[in-house]
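ARCHIVE CARD
CATEGORY: sequence design from structure
SOURCE FIELD: tokenized fold
FIELD CONTENT:
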């Protein structure tokens, strides 16, 4: 009986050890030596001419923009500006589907076509620059113009070892790797924080690069900022994920042994 208990206890120790993973492999924003420490304050100063500020996305063909133009002085003109996308859509403009259907696509030549305002070249401009360009053009027809302009195709796919894999739409002008990971519910316990891969399709090439989000220096990496259409893939941690295959059968074995031990103890008690 005592041998059974000792064996049972030993199995539990093995399971607990198998489920452990190094602390430093789970912590974000460590110093680059990866000793598991997170300094109270850490600063990186860029050299003269270097800049890693948040870059605003430059618009490309087939990007979709949700645009509303209204005039505070002329309701009829507001309706004309809205054109066929006025509030007669079956879908609410507050829903993602409604916003998409009430949006305008930039064509292959970088031209955006709007009711009344007409055609304008927006290739390579930021969303804010397009918004201002529309306002100036619209004020040729009416005063008191207000323009709302949002990009609706800034979609990032997040998959792998995250808690909520899926496709996420962002409406801000720039998106970071941590924006994507946080929206997907962060990495799971088994996610390899040293190998967060980003897959990016360009016109003439496909690019796959890897970020180590444990390191503070990830903030200085130009690839820290994502682009529309990027795929973020979190690789499983081989050592931790592999131990799952050990710990799960071991858990079943120890549970079974626990039942057997309890049954033997009850039988022995009755025999006394």
């Amino acid at each position: 009986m005592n041998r059974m208990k000792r064996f049972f206890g030993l199995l539990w120790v093995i399971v607990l050890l198998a489920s452990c993973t190094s602390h430093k492999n789970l912590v974000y924003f460590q110093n680059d030596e990866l000793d598991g420490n997170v300094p109270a304050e850490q600063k990186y100063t860029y050299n003269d001419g270097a800049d890693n500020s948040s870059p605003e996305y430059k618009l490309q063909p087939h990007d979709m923009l949700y645009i509303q133009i209204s005039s505070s002085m002329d309701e009829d003109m507001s309706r004309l500006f809205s054109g066929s996308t006025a509030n007669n859509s079956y879908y609410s403009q507050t829903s993602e589907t409604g916003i998409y259907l009430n949006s305008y696509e930039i064509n292959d030549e970088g031209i955006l076509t709007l009711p009344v305002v007409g055609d304008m070249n927006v290739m390579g401009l930021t969303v804010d620059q397009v918004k201002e360009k529309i306002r100036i053009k619209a004020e040729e027809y009416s005063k008191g113009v207000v323009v709302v302009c949002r990009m609706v195709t800034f979609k990032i796919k997040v998959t792998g070892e995250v808690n909520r894999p899926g496709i996420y739409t962002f409406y801000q002008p720039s998106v970071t790797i941590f924006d994507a990971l946080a929206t997907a519910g962060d990495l799971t316990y088994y996610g390899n924080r040293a190998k967060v891969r980003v897959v990016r399709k360009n016109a003439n090439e496909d690019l796959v690069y890897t970020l180590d989000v444990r390191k503070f220096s990830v903030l200085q990496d130009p690839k820290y900022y994502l682009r529309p259409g990027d795929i973020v893939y979190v690789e499983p941690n081989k050592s931790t994920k592999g131990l799952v295959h050990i710990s799960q059968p071991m858990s079943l074995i120890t549970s079974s042994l626990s039942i057997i031990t309890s049954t033997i103890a009850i039988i022995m008690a009755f025999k006394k």
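CARD ANNOTATION: The radius of gyration is 28 Å. The chain has six helices and twelve strands.
SHELF: design records, drawer C
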